[in-house]
Design goal:
Efflux RND transporter periplasmic adaptor subunit, Elongation Factor Tu (Ef-tu), domain 3, single chain, MdtA-like_b-barrel, Helix Hairpins, disordered C terminus, RND_pump_MFP, alpha+beta
Length: 421
């Protein structure tokens, strides 16, 4: 038998390869991507606006030496609280004791002269009536009596002035408060030429919070309050200290200026806070949060669920058949912690994709899992502006007219109801 040609072997080899290839299993289709979702619900959002300002005392009283003398004693501890009437300083009294002694001598001499005049006038009156003395003598006696009365009054006034100057040598606290550093040392000559500043006392309870409110924020906050049946001055105030802690004592507005400063477009305002512990000090910078009436029935979603395209914002909605659909929504500019308020486009009970949105497209199938938010410690305590936008100390909602609430405020939702990424 003739051997097969070599090209015949080649065809057989290729045929076997084809058969082998046909026996390989087909490629499996990738499973739907895993995404996480939340089910939306209506949430009451508490709103507030924050103003930055500075603390001041209702009374800052300068303690000055009213008479010239040497400082003998400092009777207080610098920086401590003092009570009204407490002795603060003692000045050398000796010069004023001498003045009092001299004034008493002058008064005694004037009183003696007046006593003599009081005797002479009746006696001369009788003599003149009998023709035993000339009228001129009586006239002189009456004039001398009047002069001596004036001298007595002058001497009494001089004595009172000397006693008053002596009283100024003891300087007492005119009010209760915290006293600052002494401005003069023992042995210093004070009060020469003009009253010398010795120390300053500041009233510490209550304390004032002074701030400037922009005219826009003032109008918006006032509208929110009036819509809820309040006046702006009736809304609760919370003082936030520089370390972020809050004062335990609520405050109240005590002053709002009658005019707007045309150079800054702001209104000066003042709030008052109790300070029983004395932790608040004049000059301290702080913030005041004005609690506005809460908004009812709002839908919040994590801001990471939002996608933006050509200036419009969208959410991915999970359908009942586990497909997703992209939907354009209208959201408020102000963030609620890490969440955003949806004004329109989503109803309560719908499911919104939070994580995995980069894996989906409109109409695609997904494998949904409930979104597990982090613990409450990771949630910001109050509303803030979205990233990339300027921060303000008076966080007023810029979507007041957009959501037809007629209001503007920083907003925050209760942690138990708020979906937090």
């Amino acid at each position: 038998m003739k051997p097969l040609p070599s090209f015949t072997h080649g065809f057989l080899f290729l045929g076997l390869l084809g058969i082998t290839a046909c026996k390989k299993p087909a490629l499996q289709q990738a499973p739907p991507p895993i995404v996480t979702f939340i089910e939306t619900k209506k949430t009451d959002v508490e709103r507030s606006t924050v103003f930055v300002g500075q603390l001041d005392s209702p009374q800052n009283v300068e303690i000055r030496a009213r008479v010239e003398s040497f400082l003998d004693k400092v009777a207080f501890t610098e920086g401590e609280e003092v009570k009204k009437g407490d002795l603060l300083f003692m000045l050398d009294e000796k010069p004023y004791l001498k003045k009092i002694a001299s004034a008493k001598g002058d008064l005694a001499a004037a009183q003696a002269a007046l006593t003599r005049s009081n005797i002479d006038v009746p006696r001369l009156t009788s003599l003149v009536s009998e023709g035993a003395a000339p009228q001129r003598d009586l006239d002189n006696a009456i004039a001398s009596q009047s002069s001596n009365k004036a001298k007595v009054a002058s001497a009494e006034a001089a004595l009172e002035a000397a006693q008053l100057e002596l009283s100024y040598c003891e300087i007492h606290a005119p009010l209760s408060g915290r006293i600052g550093a002494k401005q003069a040392s023992v042995g210093s000559l004070v009060g020469k030429g003009e009253p010398t500043l010795l120390a300053t006392i500041s009233q510490v309870d209550p304390m004032w919070f002074d701030c400037s409110i922009s005219e826009v924020d003032f109008i918006r906050a006032d509208k929110v309050a009036r819509k809820a049946g309040y006046k702006l001055g009736q809304l609760p105030l919370t003082l936030i200290l520089p370390d972020g802690s809050e004062s335990e004592s609520p405050g109240k507005w005590v002053f709002k200026d009658r005019v707007v400063d045309p150079t800054t477009a702001t209104i000066r305002a003042r709030a008052e806070f109790a300070n029983p512990t004395g932790v608040l000090r004049p000059g301290m910078f702080a913030r005041v949060r004005v609690s506005l009436p809460s908004r009812k029935g709002n839908i919040l979603v994590p801001d990471r669920a939002l996608t933006e395209l050509q200036g419009k914002e969208f959410l991915w909605i999970l359908q009942s058949d586990n497909t997703v659909k992209q939907r354009m929504v209208n959201v408020a500019e102000t963030r609620i912690g890490s969440n955003v308020m949806v004004l329109s486009g989503v109803e309560a009970g719908e499911k919104v994709i939070v994580e995995g949105i980069q894996k989906v497209r409109d109409g695609s199938k997904v494998t949904p899992k409930p979104f597990a938010p982090p613990g409450p410690d990771s949630q910001p305590p109050s509303a803030s502006k979205p990233p990339g936008k300027p921060k303000t100390d008076q966080n007023i909602d810029q979507n007041a007219e957009k959501d037809k609430a007629g209001s503007s405020a920083t907003e925050s939702a209760p942690a138990a109801e708020q979906p937090t990424p």
